[in-house]
Amino acid sequence: MKPDWDKLMKKYADSDVALVADVDCTASGKSLCSxxxxxGYPTIKYGNPAETLQDYNGGxxxxxxxxxxxxxxxxxxVTMLHLCDEETKQRVTxxxxxxxxxxDALIKEKEDKIEAADRAQKEGVEKLQARYQELEEEKKKxxxxxxxxxxxxxxxxxxxxxxxxxxxxxxxxxxxxxxxxVLDQLGLEKSIRGVSKAMTxxxxxxxxxxxxxxxxxx
Length: 218
Hints:
CATH class of the largest domain: Alpha Beta
Number of domains: 3
CATH architecture of the largest domain: 3-Layer(aba) Sandwich
Largest sheet: 2 strands, antiparallel
CATH topology of the largest domain: Glutaredoxin
Radius of gyration: 45 Å
Structural class: mainly alpha
């Protein structure tokens, strides 16, 4: 990070409104670091030195810190009003004319808006959490509704087809086997089996006779 920070210090070295510097918090700059609230190293602080400095939590490469530094406004304060833009100067001038109780009322108004924004954010998060819980419960109900029949369905498949069957085996179990069951219930399976056996024997004898006639064993 130091090369990038040194590059940023060099860029702002001649600026009349901004100062980019580094402080050794372990040596001569220890008291200064303590005053501005440095707790770890390296720490980047920014803001008006006459007020409380803020922590910078963005990227530490040159592009990130340079972009952030370029976006900062001049350190406009009541004591350095000449650095403020015209709109801010006018607003501060108007506030300076108000009585203490009027300033307190304005301060409270701003603080109330901040509190309202915080409440709205918390309420929004609570609603999201509640909706998330509802979605989780709906998901569980849907899964539970199909888990038992799915287990039974897999058990049926495992019982009927305990191994991967060939196409012919699938045809037998899905076509031939049901037909045989029906024929058996009608008492016709034995008769048909006998006819089938006889036909098979006739075909076999016919093939043998043809084979003898042509001199080839079929």
